[in-house]
Amino acid sequence: MKTIREKRRYTCQVCGTGSVRWLGRCPGCGGYSTMVEEVVTEEKRTVLSENHPKPMAEIEETRMTRIPTGLAEVDRVLGGGIVPGAFMLLGGDPG
After folding, report:
1. pTM (2 decimals)?
2. How many Å is the Cα radius of gyration of the chain?
3. Average confidence score pLDDT of the chain
4. Cα–Cα–Cα angle for 57, 59, 64, rounded to 5 degrees
5. Would you say the C-alpha torsion 51, 55, 60, 66 has a positive or negative sign?
6. How far apart are alpha carbons 92 and 72 in whole angstroms?
7. Is the pLDDT of residue 54 over 80?
8. Regarding predicted confidence, which is higher, 56 or 32?
9. pLDDT (tens digit, 9 = 90+) per residue, 63-78?
10. Contact 29, 15 (CB under 8 A)
């Protein structure tokens, strides 16, 4: 699926500096009234995924090697420890 989008862009006719809004003075060369509006056409492609949600009964369980932290409660929450290469953010009240 393709979508064509138009964007407005302002370009200095002297030095080529671009801006998303009109400016009275070019920030690149300092020239006055040199910014000219241009319409840029952008083609955007939407990739439709063939992956669809699956019922929990159809999902295969995979066993990962985990590294125990030594803290029983943390290991329980993480499913037995830290999975190598995974990123976990732990937070909670102090104490």
Report:
1. 0.41
2. 27
3. 85
4. 130
5. positive
6. 16
7. yes
8. 32
9. 788 999 999 999 998 8
10. yes
- With a CB cutoff of 8 Å and minimum separation 6, the contacts of 1 are 45, 46, 48
Q: What pLDDT does 37 receive?
A: 92
**Cα–Cα distance measured from residue 59 to residue 61, given in angstroms and rounded to the nearest whole number:** 6
Q: How many residues does the chain have?
A: 95
At 35, the pLDDT band (50, 70, 90 cuts) reads: very high
List of residues 6+ apart from 34 with CB closer than 8 A: 12, 13, 14, 15, 26
* Burial class (CB within 10 angstroms; exposed 0-12, middle 13-18, buried 19+) of 52: exposed
Extract the tokens encoding 32. Answer: 């006055």
